Amino acid sequence: MSDPNTHLDTAYEAIIEHNDESRWAFGTGFTDPLAGIDTTVPADIDAAALAGYCRALGDDALILSHRLQEWVYRAPELEEETALANVALDLLGQARMLLARAGRAEGADRDEDALAFRRSAAEFGNVTLAEIPDTDFASCVARLLVFAVWRLALFAQLRGSADPVLAAIAAKAVAELSYHRDYAADWVVRLGDGTVESADRMAAGLVAVAPHVEELFAGTTVERGLADVAVDPSMLRDEVLGTVGDVLLAATLDPLEPSDAGFRGREGRHTEAMAPLLEEMQSVARAHPGAIW
Amino acid sequence: MTGPLDHAERVVADVLDPELPQLTLADLGIVRRVTIEDDTVVVVVTPTYSGCPAMTEIQVDIQRQLRVAGYPKVAVRLQLDPPWTTDWITDDGRRKLQAAGITPPAESAPRDGPVPLTLGRRPPDVRCPRCRSTDTQELSRFGATACRALYRCRACAETFDYMKAI
After folding, report:
1. pLDDT at position A16, please?
2. Could you give the CA distance from residue A141 to residue A80 in angstroms, rounded to a whole number?
3. CA neighbours closer than 13 Å in the CB half-sphere of residue A222
């Protein structure tokens, strides 16, 4: 077994050499993104509050992942389609781990699928920035920039969370989020400092995002009840708006004017876009209850 | 001295990465440890990307190869902390990537503290795996799999994959 490739022409032949049923991963039970990880909630942490917090952080990633997946097959260029699909995949991976962490902390036997596919809009805790629909590619990268800068700042702090599982998930996500941020920032600069048309669209994309920005820093009772575990998002405001401002300056665009339209996704107060989004995202799972994939 | 544990370790080390089958799990540096508890082989692996679809396949492959090698009872466990970095790819792994036309990753960014944004930042000296020129250009930050970016060499005009440093 020291070199399994020696008698094969290509490395790819090696992976199909023993092509029996057992090589297909799906339906094999390896579906738990936290398999073998000690998910005991530390004694001094409120398990229900931790579950709610991880659910909300998982929902942020799940819902934006879905919005990004909507670009697959209709992105302006193949490279951008691949890029957005990859960002969506990273976020889906983060969502799976966070929802699995939430399910364990709940102790009510809800797995990631139960949380993703069997909750209604009011039960989702994602910020509304994640759920608003895109109108064009510029609006997509405007939202992705603000989201990635904010989530990166948040997760960089969460690496020190008192919950070791949440801290480990955050540490893993940081490298991915910085990649998402840099991708979005490059496009914002390219479009903002591009043609009159591209600059107009980039500016319009940022205007559409602005009413959902203050909500990112609002915080809820959940975070306040989780000292040392959660991050108070109001502490992130200067850093996040500073970084976004640097990008917009390089893009020769006007500064972002963050406002507060009063939505509070963390408390289940979503925009009208949330219910149709869930209807589509959950349609297959709801049509085939108990299905395994 | 070789015993069942050494043997099981070798079997796990030689499992191929389904997305980069030029590399073994040992080359990738994702196997944390292999132990035998009673009659069960326990394998601890670190996931690569949070959403890497190959992770499930890797777990299945470990179990299957161990079974073929005579270990019917296998438990595959994940370990998230510390997170995997492309710095853990071995020198052997880097040579195999290069030979397969994939430029190995540069050193990854430091793990702690803030992650500064530098617009237009690119990894230094991404070398063409064919002609070795560093006169290369990023075509797309994201490539065929989560771990790769697409580049073009200005010297020989060929496109190639660069394995992202994370």
Report:
1. 59
2. 11
3. 22
List, as ranges, residues 49-88 from A with C-beta within 8 Å of B. Answer: 79, 82-83, 85-87
> What is the model's pLDDT at position B153?
95
Find out whether A161 and A228 touch, Cβ atoms under 8 Å: yes
Confidence of residue A167 (pLDDT cuts 50, 70, 90): very high
The structure tokens listed for B98 are 């290069």
CA proximity to B32, closest of B21, B44, B20, B23: B44
What distance in Å separates the CA atoms of residue B4 and residue B14, rounded to the nearest whole number? 15
| Tokens representing residue B80 in the block | 């998230």
Q: Dihedral of CA A227/A230/A234/A236: which sign?
A: positive
**Tokens matching residue A128:** 């509304």
Looking at chain B, list the stretches that DSSP marks H as alpha helix, in order from N- to C-terminal side: 4-13, 25-28, 54-68, 91-99
What the block records as the tokens of A135 is 């109108």
- CA A51 vs. chain centroid, Å, equals 17
Residue window 192-251, chain A: list those with CB within 8 Å of chain B: 239, 243, 246-247, 250
